[in-house]
Amino acid sequence: MISNDVLRSVRFMLNVGESTLSEIIRLGGGAVAPMQLTAFLKRDDEPGFVLCDAKTMGQFLDGLIIHRRGPAPEGQAHAPEKHVTNNTVLKKLRVAFELKEDDLVEMLTSAGFEVSRPELSALFRKPDHRNYRPCGDQFLRNFLKALTARVRG
Predict the structure, then answer these.
(1) N vs C: which end of the chain shows fewer Cβ within 10 Å?
(2) pLDDT above 70 covers what percent of the chain?
(3) Which helix (H) or strand (E) holds 149?
(4) Cβ-based neighbour number of residue 21 at 10 Å
(5) Up-side HSE of residue 136: CA atoms within 13 Å toward CB?
(6) C-alpha span between 131 and 141 (Å, rounded)
(7) What is the per-residue pLDDT across 28-54, written as a single tens digit (0 to 9) for each?
(8) Cα–Cα distance for residue pair 135/66, rounded to 1 Å
């Protein structure tokens, strides 16, 4: 799933404007010009669309965690992600919205997407673990849909 879709989904989910998105990216250690953010939020078939790079997406996700939960305690600095995958997006959204495994299963079931606990835990493992499973676009879309329903009511 492209990062721009995640940005648009989270923006809709939280019902925030571009200035708040820019602030969230700043909290994550980045900076984005207003024109660039507008280009990120356009659909891929619209003129002026610009693909959101992995660095900006990582900064947005880190900033979202800080925005929702507050800064990490002193001495617990987090290294920025070099490559943002669907699994990374899933993990960081789970942290930002303080979701437990039971919450995830319940949300996805209510969205019509059945998932077992072992399948779910495989998505949160490190890539070199033997039971690691990459998160597919369809799974991430369903997760975002379920999270939006939970956040917006």
Answers:
(1) C
(2) 96
(3) helix 137-152
(4) 24
(5) 6
(6) 22
(7) 999 999 999 999 999 999 999 999 999
(8) 24
- List Cβ neighbours of 43 (8 Å cut-off, separation of 6 or more): 49
Of residues 110, 118, 108, 117, the one with CA closest to residue 138: 108
Contact 59, 66 (CB under 8 A): no
Q: Which of 49, 1, 61 is nearest to 25 (CA)?
A: 61
Contacting residues for 105 by C-beta, under 8 A, at least 6 apart:
115, 117, 120
DSSP per position, 17-35: -HHHHHHHHHHTT----HH
Amino acid letter, residue 58 = G
Q: Write the single-letter amino acid at 88.
A: T
Residue 120: partners with Cβ closer than 8 Å, 6 or more residues away: 101, 104, 105
Q: What is the DSSP string of 67-115?
A: HHH-PPPTT---PPPSS--HHHHHHHHHHHTT--HHHHHHHHHHTT---
> Which two three-digit tokens encode residue 152?
């917006």
Is residue 80 predicted with pLDDT exceeding 70?
no
